[in-house]
Structures are given as structure tokens and as C-alpha cells.
């Protein structure tokens, strides 16, 4: 069991102009682990994908709340949970396939999960149709002694 | 987020600067599509040298325009992507569209 050495929670309205706000807040929280510029950029991209998915897929034609939970685990790992109470995902395995999208007319590339996966260390997706979706990511940031 | 449109011969260049996410892509798409509807260029070039942040929405933006210009057998190029843009482009396979201009090469040195 990992020890939580710092934590933060926020709820943002699912407006697309809040995507950059979410990225900035997570980056500011992650800064305490002294990440590299590249690591910060990777975290921002992963957060952007998860938040965009809540807005575009979770809430589609409505504006709902997006909950973001941030933790520092064992003093070296960033934990990020991003969730919505929207449509949910029927088949998570299929949804996570690169290039799979249920929304091509919205100009999605089907690469959101691929970005989250490659830019973080762990990615878990929980979802229930009609209930919502939660994406949990972790990234170890302080490997340098 | 900003997009500036330039023309040279039969090439239309969309110079994108700042953060390219889903929110910004929606606005950029409208500007580019308005221009494409008027002039059907042979080549559409995305100048991504000034992109400071990009996620997969940038890939969607390029793919959508690719579909449009292919209606008249046009081409799409991505010139001098910033390191962040290039990282996402590589992941998507769109790095085949990347070209380096001489200006971009100089800037890298
Ligand atoms: N928060 C969410 N709520 C509902 N469906 C989602 C959510 N996140 C992802 N999905 C589903 O997973 C698919 C793949 O997501 P992603 O890899 O980000 O690609 P894209 O967003 O380009 O479609 C989406 O098309 C959608 O069907
Ligand atoms: Mg997505």
C-alpha cells in the first residue's frame, strides 16, 4: 500500500475552454516532484486526453462536472484520477484500441487512450454504461537521486 | 491559440501557434475549412513550428483536412513540427507527412 504524501481535489465544468485549465492545474500540482520539462508536457497531454474524453464522449451534448483527484504517492509518484458521470463505455477493451473512436464526425483520431498509455506508467479505466467513466493514471517522477 | 493563413503558388499554409487541443482545434478547423472551400489548393501545409502543446486533437484536425483535400486529389504536409507536435505525430503515424523547410532547419541549429 502506497502512502499518500500530498493530495488535491477539484471539480471543473465540462466546457472545452477548461481543458487548458485542467492541464495547468495538474502541472502545478506535479511541480513539487521536480519533473523535467518533457515529463510535464507528457502529463499535460495525458490529462488533456482524459478531460477531453469526458467532455466529448461522456457528456456529449450536455455540460457536466469533471472530477480530478491528484495525489503524491510515496513521495515520488503522481497519481491522477479523472472521472465523469456521463454515458460510460460499453466495451472498454475495444475503446482502448488505437484508432477506435465512436465519434469520427467530431474529428477524433481514436488515439486518446494511446497517448495516455504511452505518456504515463500505469493506466486503468473503470466505466459503467449510463453511470460514467473514471481514468486513473500514475507516473513515477522522482527517479533521479 | 492562433491560426494564420498564407498562400504561395498552389499551396495554402496554415500557421498554427500556441496550444493545439480540442478547444483550439474547433476554431482552427472553421478558419481552415472556410479558406479550403474558397480555393481548393493543391497542397495544404500545416506549419506546426510554433505549436507549444498538442494532443490527439491535432491529429484529428489533420486527418479531417486530409479527407477534404483528397476530394480534389490535393496533398497535406506538416512542416517543421515542434518537438511536442512531433511526439504526437509519431504516435499517430502521421509523421510520414512531415517536411522540413530550410527556415525550419536553420531555426533548429
Ligand atoms: N469519458 C468517456 N465517456 C464515454 N466514452 C468514452 C470516454 N472516454 C473514452 N470513451 C470511448 O472510448 C473511445 C476511444 O477514446 P480515445 O482513445 O480517446 O479516442 P477518441 O476520443 O479520439 O474517440 C471514444 O471514442 C469513446 O467511445
Ligand atoms: Mg479522446
Structure description:
The complex is a heterodimer of chains A (145) and B (109). With 145 residues, chain A is of the alpha+beta class. Chain A has a single domain, classed as Heat Shock Protein 90 (2-Layer Sandwich), CATH 3.30.565. Helices cover 32% and strands 30% of the residues of chain A. Chain A contains 4 helices and 5 strands. Chain A has helices at 19-30, 37-58, 92-95, 112-119, and strands at 4-13, 65-73, 77-84, 122-128, 132-140. A 5-stranded antiparallel sheet of chain A has the order 1-2-3-5-4, covered by helices on one side. In chain A, a hairpin with a 3-residue loop joins β2 and β3. In chain A, α1 (19-30) packs antiparallel against α2 (37-58) and α2 runs antiparallel to α4 (112-119). The longest helix of chain A is centred in the N-terminal third of the chain and has 22 residues, at 37-58. The radius of gyration of chain A is 15 Å and the shape is globular. Chain A starts with a strand and ends in a 5-residue tail after the last strand. The mean pLDDT of chain A is 95. Chain B starts with a strand and ends with a helix. Chain B has a 5-stranded mixed sheet. The longest helix of chain B has 18 residues, at 22-39. Chain B has a single domain, classed as STAS domain (Transcription Regulator spoIIAA, 2-Layer Sandwich), CATH 3.30.750.24. With 109 residues, chain B is an alpha/beta fold. Chain B has 4 helices and 5 strands. Chain B is globular, with a radius of gyration of 13 Å. Magnesium ion binds next to α2 of chain A.
Amino acid at each position: 500500500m502506497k502512502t499518500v504524501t500530498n493530495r488535491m481535489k477539484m471539480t471543473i465544468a465540462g466546457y472545452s475552454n477548461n481543458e487548458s485549465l485542467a492541464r495547468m492545474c495538474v502541472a502545478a500540482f506535479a511541480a513539487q516532484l521536480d519533473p523535467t520539462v518533457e515529463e510535464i508536457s507528457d502529463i499535460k497531454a495525458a490529462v488533456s486526453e482524459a478531460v477531453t474524453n469526458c467532455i466529448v464522449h461522456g457528456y456529449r451534448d450536455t455540460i457536466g462536472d469533471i472530477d480530478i483527484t491528484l495525489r503524491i504517492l510515496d513521495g515520488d509518484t503522481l497519481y491522477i484520477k479523472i472521472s465523469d458521470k456521463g454515458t460510460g463505455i460499453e466495451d472498454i477493451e475495444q475503446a482502448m484500441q488505437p484508432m477506435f473512436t465512436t465519434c469520427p464526425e467530431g474529428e477524433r483520431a481514436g488515439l486518446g487512450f494511446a497517448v495516455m498509455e504511452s505518456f504515463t506508467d500505469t493506466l486503468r479505466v473503470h466505466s459503467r454504461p449510463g453511470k460514467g467513466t473514471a481514468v486513473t493514471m500514475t507516473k513515477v517522477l522522482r527517479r533521479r537521486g | 491559440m492562433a491560426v494564420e493563413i498564407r498562400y504561395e503558388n498552389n499551396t495554402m499554409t496554415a500557421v498554427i501557434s500556441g496550444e493545439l487541443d480540442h478547444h483550439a482545434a474547433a476554431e482552427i478547423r472553421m478558419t481552415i475549412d472556410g479558406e479550403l472551400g474558397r480555393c481548393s489548393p493543391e497542397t495544404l501545409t500545416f506549419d506546426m513550428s510554433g505549436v507549444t502543446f498538442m494532443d490527439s486533437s491535432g491529429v484529428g484536425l489533420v486527418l479531417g483536412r486530409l479527407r477534404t483535400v483528397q476530394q480534389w486529389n490535393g496533398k497535406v504536409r506538416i512542416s517543421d513540427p515542434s518537438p511536442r507536435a512531433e511526439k504526437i505525430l509519431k504516435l499517430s503515424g502521421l509523421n510520414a507527412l512531415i517536411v522540413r523547410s530550410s527556415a525550419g532547419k536553420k531555426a533548429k541549429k
